[in-house]
Design a protein that fits this description.
The complex is a heterodimer. Chain A is an alpha+beta fold. Chain A is built from 4 helices and 5 strands, in the order βααββααββ. Chain A has helices spanning about 20-30, 35-60, 90-95, 110-120; strands at about 5-15, 65-75, 75-85, 120-130, 130-140. Chain B is an alpha/beta fold. The chains are: A alpha+beta, B alpha/beta. Bound molecules: adenosine-5'-diphosphate and magnesium ion (MG).
Chain lengths: ~150, ~110
Amino acid sequence: MNIRKNHMRLCFDSKSANESFARVAVSAFMSQLSPTLEEINDVKTAVSEAVTNAIVHGYKDESGEVVIDASLWDDGRVIIDVSDTGCGIDDISQAMTPFFTSQPEMERAGMGFAVMQTFMDDVRVTSRPGQGTSVFMVKRVKGSAK
Amino acid sequence: MLKYSRQGTVLTVMLEGELDQNSSQVVREELDNLIEDTRIRHLTLDMRNLTFMDSSGIGVIIGRYRTLARRGGGVSVTGESAHIRRVMKLTGLYTILDNGRGEASSL
Ligand SMILES: Nc1ncnc2c1ncn2[C@@H]1O[C@H](COP(=O)(O)OP(=O)(O)O)[C@@H](O)[C@H]1O
Ligand SMILES: [Mg+2]
């Protein structure tokens, strides 16, 4: 059995100005696992993508709340869940296809999920149209000391 | 305000801090104002002081590339960190970048 060493929950308004704060908060929290700089940057970037999606797609820049749950495990895993109660996703596999974006006019690259999948060890999306989306991500931190 | 310099048809712009969806709105606007001058064909983004970039930055670069490609030019980047290079690689951005054209120093 793996033991959860620590947990935190962050809840903030769906404002773009919070993207930086959110990714920095998660990366500071995970520093307890002594990650490498590369591992920190991987998690920062994945969190930035998920939070941005909640704000610009989930809530379409309307007001709402984004919640991040993050936990650290004794086997070195960081588990992060970014959720919104926004519009939800109709077709998750289409949404996760590289270069797919529902907002091409906003110059979105359609690469957010591809970035999350490349930089994290596991990414799972659950969503219900009209109810919201949750992005569950796992990173195995090997760290520099271990 | 973005720092920039122009040499003939090449505009070099210094990107600083973090480029995410929040900051990309201002950066996009400022870059568009700068490349409104149709004598400019090539944009070089100097990333030595850019500490973070996610896929929102990729969108900004592709958008400016489209404008300049219509004039027969393109975009190149210099000084990017290892992590930003990984983001650009995985999104295939380097295949459209025109590293060094019109600029003697890079590559
Ligand atoms: N939290 C979310 N709520 C609703 N739709 C989402 C959410 N996250 C992603 N999507 C959908 O998935 C698509 C792909 O997301 P992504 O890969 O990050 O690309 P981009 O954000 O550039 O469009 C988005 O265009 C959007 O339609
Ligand atoms: Mg996205």
